[in-house]
Amino acid sequence: MKIALLGHGTVGRGVVDIIDSGTGALEVSRILELPQFCNEARMTSNFDDIVEDDEIDAVVEAMGGLEPAHGYIVRALEAGKSVVTSNKAVVAEFFEEFVDAARANGASLFIEATTGGGIPWIAGLMKVRRVDEVSSFSGIMNGTTNYIVDQMSRSGAEFGAVLERAQGLGYAERDPSADIDGIDVKNKTIISASVAFDVACTHDLPVSGIRNLTKADLEFFASRGQSVRLLGKGVQELGSYAVAVEPTAVDARSMEAAVPDNFNLLSCEGATIGPLKFYGQGAGSLPTGNAMVQDLLDLAAGVRPIYDFSRGLAYDPTLLSGDYLIRAAGFEPSGAEPAGAGYHRVPDITAEQARSLLDEALSVDPTAFMAAIG
Ligand code: HSE
Fold it and tell me: Is domain 2-110 annotated with CATH 3.60.20.30?
């Protein structure tokens, strides 16, 4: 099967390396590159050379960003070419449009590499969905922030120093906002919810990150027998669902608290399967390339993912609610009790209310931090 690759960066190179090392049925026949980097006969800087080539069955999009990736994916699907993408931002934004375009043109959309890198999380959710409704999912979906929290917990270093180390290792971008403010996890949560709950999740979900997490915060949670992890989470119940991204206190003896370095751990639950956990590398050239090659092998074997957004689930924020711990100097939320170390415990609010409360707190103390405690 002939494929074209859009984007020859970290992930794209991983796809080429795995295919070139011998996956039999696959051949990378075209690579879209900037003109100055076109140094192989199969490289082109003109997308028309790809979309108009009838021999190409599949387009592998590993460019990242919204445009031109969105336009290229739609054009490829409209030309009847299946698309395999690792681009979580574009799928989170245009999932339903891509699914409709694929269906209308006899093509397929494969998204395993968008969430959890090399971990077969999307495939796992789809398999669970064949028998059970997914009642909930949650996960450490961002390796950079897990690395930061893990290193801070282990070495007692402050956030800034560990972030610099993460940037040195290539885990964190020069502008780390998408990771540390939860935007990357937001995209992965939208995709996970869409697959797990069969809903085109377009809700403006509550998102908070770990930008203000300090060594003292981790010591406070450790004194309670807990660690903190940035989790993407979703729940569905009786025709409704809710999703959120927020720092969450987890039991210090839990599997989440033990996830080291930049690894991911994704969990879901169904009535007959019970709780399931998927652990592995959520980023990187070869793990993410591996997920894309797996998708291509499925395509070559005639295995097609099925997305069905027709159930019309309602969004109900009360499905994700619980107690929160908030630290903000000079800010005392009503109904909250002092919990020590400058923290207040706020009982029984929704994730949406918690996010609003955090905004209020940040306007008083820009270093405020909040975590869900279940
Ligand atoms: N920045 C992401 C992470 C890359 O750290 O997990 C993989 O999506």
Answer: no
